[in-house]
Amino acid sequence: MRKPLLIISSLLMLFSCHRPAKQPHIVLTVMTSAHPYFQAVIAEWQRLSQVHGFTLSLMDPNFDNARLMKIVEDLIIRRPDGIAFAPLDSRMAVRMLQKIKEAGIPVIAYNINPSEPVAPTVVGEDLQGGRLAGETAAEEWRKTHSGTSPRIGIVGQVGIAEVDKREQGFLEGVRKIFPQAVLLQEVNGYGVRDKALRAAEDMLQAHPDLDIAFGINDDTALAIVDAVRESGLKRILVAGIGGSEPIIKELLKPESPFKVAVANPPRDIADAGWTLLERVLQGDPSYRLQYLPFVKIVPEQALEWLKAQYPSKDGEQR
Questions:
Q1: Which residue of 57, 111, 183, 230 sits 20 to 30 Å from the alpha carbon of 199, by its own alpha carbon?
Q2: What average pLDDT is seen over the chain?
Q3: Tell me, what's the pLDDT at 5?
Q4: pLDDT for 223-256, tens place per residue?
Q5: What is the dihedral of CA 110, 112, 113, 119, to 10 degrees?
Q6: Alpha carbon of 87 to those of 69, 77, 95, 110, 203: distances in Å?
Q7: DSSP symbols for the chain
Q8: Is 146 a residue whose pLDDT tops 50?
Q9: Are 153 and 208 in contact (CB under 8 A)?
């Protein structure tokens, strides 16, 4: 009488062994999905999900910390297998990441470094990126203004430590070439194009003698370009952090005021984020902070950069 039971038991074991394993569920948060940079980050994570066999969900607070906290609370209830978390603020990130970790959910941070070492993190070297942009802008300015120190304007974003580092680095980079360079004004563009445009317009109206203007991301740099064109101040040189398609198009226009593009590679930061999260998923609890260097984009290599870092609209690499 035991033989049929043994056969049934063996069949159940055979079925369970061959049943497809459930794919891990990974959640990616972004600061906003409206920026080309984060669109490229999302596209690379989607590619990684296909290569490594996990299900990917996207959460977008659109620069709203209250909304991001609600996302965190929702994730604690849903309990995904892992989270790649993009903070909006280095200080508030600590509390949010601690809540996720206390819930036992594997998590890494990226793009902004939390003010305390609470989770493995990968970020760009913002101070280095700013210095690279500033030094390059000063070199460009010196080609036609070798005897004069430039007057600088910055359209930034208040309340983000990484942006502060970009701005500090930019001034340091310019002053490496022109020690007497003066910062005329720094305005808050909120990191988005419409608000940055209004801020840039106000800055140029207050300082029509401005020589070099710096934008802290793609949208901000493009907004400055728009404001410069509207003002008719043709001598102004625009520099920015960012390497998306609209920025590359400006860089390739000989008549454009935009002359300096320094970029944080979105595909590289997504790949590094997955590598960190994968280690956490495998049970490695150790904290680590990884910095990725910014790179200068020159016109001769701009299309190659775009192909490598930003996917085309059909989802494939260019």
A1: 111
A2: 91
A3: 39
A4: 999 999 999 998 899 999 989 999 999 999 999 9
A5: -30
A6: 10, 19, 11, 7, 29
A7: -HHHHHHHHHHHHHHHHHSPPPPPEEEEE-S-TTSHHHHHHHHHHHHHHHHHT-EEEEE--TT-HHHHHHHHHHHHHH--SEEEE--SSHHHHHHHHHHHHHTT--EEEESS--SS--S-EEEE-HHHHHHHHHHHHHHHHHTT-TTSPPEEEEEE-TT-HHHHHHHHHHHHHHHHH-TT-EEEEEEE-TTSHHHHHHHHHHHHHH-TT--EEEESSHHHHHHHHHHHHHHT-TT-EEEEE--SHHHHHHHT-TT-SEEEEEE--HHHHHHHHHHHHHHHHTT-----EEEE--EEEPGGGHHHHHHHHSB-TTSSB-
A8: yes
A9: no
Which residue has tokens 């079925």? 15
